[in-house]
Amino acid sequence: MDDRFDRITDRRGTGSLKWDVKENELPMWVADMDFPTAPCVRRAIEKRAAHGIFGYSIIPDAWYDAYRNWWKTHHGLDITREELIFTTGVIPALSTAVRKFTTPAEKIVIQTPVYNIFVNSIVNNGRRVLENPLVYRDGGYDMDFADLEEKLSDPLTTMMILCNPQNPAGKIWSREHLAQVGELCRKHHVLVFSDEIHCDLTAPDASYIPFASVNETCRMNSITAVAPTKAFNIAGTQSAAVIVPEEGLRQRMDRALNTDEVAEPNAFAIDAAVAAFSDEGWEWLTALRGYIARNRETVYEFIRSELPDVYALPQDATYLMWLDVSRYTDDAESLQRRIREKTGLYLSAGNIYGGNGHYFLRLNIACPKALLEDGLKRLKTGLYR
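-> structure tokens emitted (385 positions)
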């Protein structure tokens, strides 16, 4: 038992997107944890708040050092100071890249089912979505490289958005998979934007492979987006970074982020990130990953004993479990609505993620065990036929 994560914090009435629900409802949908952030992050924010003046902020050496040390120590990636650019968020950076490196009506490849906001960044900017559906077999997902090459070879395809680790499937892509993606994109002159925001939320015995670390081909034809916000539950601080090793791409991306006004930190963004990417932050994160792993086992055990017609995919990363409910429905959105109306449990319907997502529900398990157990009981009630 770890009181840091077992304690239930009442988030109703705090302006929380996740908890803006009816009194009887239990939200387990959006990727937002129900744990207070690491004590070192809270102290850093409190210290900054106590100063009382919140003017324009610079990006100090400490910020660059924190990212570089963290990625070198924990992910084996050497990053130079020049390769790092501050940005307010991964999705703002993605939308900036879409506008800068593609033109209207061009095509951008995504591997579905995948984080639905990728589609928004493409469509809202007048570009076209080109799906390379992941292959679902033997209880897991794999890449369809034949189809991927066909999509990349389209003359109108100019960018691919990679999700690594993958959301919603929670899969860590292998070095071999990433190398093949990199080679195909180089061959067909397609830029890779790699969203790696979930990289620090791996299982205790797993680690992810940064796309830019695979080889020189991947490194020099990519923009990688990273942040402390998902792992440390500080999305509201609007603090992220892009890693852009190739100088020409970097200069263009830097200019584009500044043009879009998403390259300047607010008064808390720097201090929160520096504190998160510290030794004390790593200790807290290690404990968090262990707690999430135990929650994941709780889900597996419950499904085995109480919901044998549901299949929970094995996962290496994230705190979002991908539940195959194909024995119940081929329209997860309708099922999700029925469960919510019947029990108050609010999950994400897989339809929005594309691909075969209409057979799946996404369950957020980053919460105290008592809330998770409540959610699982509601799920059983909601699925009872």
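The first strand starts at residue 26 and ends at 27.
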